[in-house]
Amino acid sequence: MRRCAWSDMPWPVRDGVRAHTGPVVGLEAAPSGNHAHIAGTLHADHGPVFVKGARKEDDRDGLEVRTLRNEARINPYVQPYAPRLLWTVEEAGWLLLGFEHVRARHADYTPGSPDLDRLTKVLEALQAMPAPEVVTLQVERRWQPVLDDVSAMAGGTLLHADLNPANLLITPAGRPYVVDWAFTSRGAAWVELGLLIPWLLKAGHSPGAVDAWLARFPSWTQADANTLDQFAWAFAETWRQRSFADSATAWKAELAALGKRWADHRGAHRF
Q: pTM, whole model, 2 decimals?
């Protein structure tokens, strides 16, 4: 997705933001992410703020705007794990969110990294959190196109649902922050862990080491083994189909390959 520059914003949008930030010096674009038309650190008189924004489609909410609204709704419920939402601006067909700016780095999921302990603590906290009523996405619906019965994935736990290393920030003091709550869902607690597996494999963990790491979470060890196999196959098949439909997008093929590696490890074949 092509990101917009600050100068691309309509004047009503920029004026709305300046009402919160004071005069804007410039926007330092975020190096990653693909669900916002504008994202990065906004440098302004009142201090830096992280801004994410998307434009509507013919005055209607497209996917990007809907995910931003989802992120805004959940923000009060996921403190202190997420940077605080400071303001919203909705003008001239755009929705912009301004978040507390956090000076931090992306997490390191490689074997032996101390960030894995930080990830564990974040996961333990999230695993114990019931989803508030404002969370409307049901995680099991992701897999309905490939599985006849997804009921085992349903539940009432709050799921971030995209804990890749870019979405876990670590401050110089070692404090973790979770960002990009755009796809926050409700579901069975173990699904959060299942969605994390490809990122652990990509970071260099063997499938056996991933098995050992997951064993610390009761939601995973208590889940039915056949259910976990179904999920492994469904993840791999979903991304295989998406990669086939969009072969030019390399990260989709990578997720398909990582998913297949895990499914093969579990011996999870077509369901």
A: 0.94
Find residue 88's DSSP bridge partners. 97
Ordered by where they begin, the domains of the chain are 6-100 (3.30.200.20), 105-266 (3.90.1200.10)
Each residue's pLDDT tens digit, 235-262: 999 999 999 999 999 999 999 999 999 9
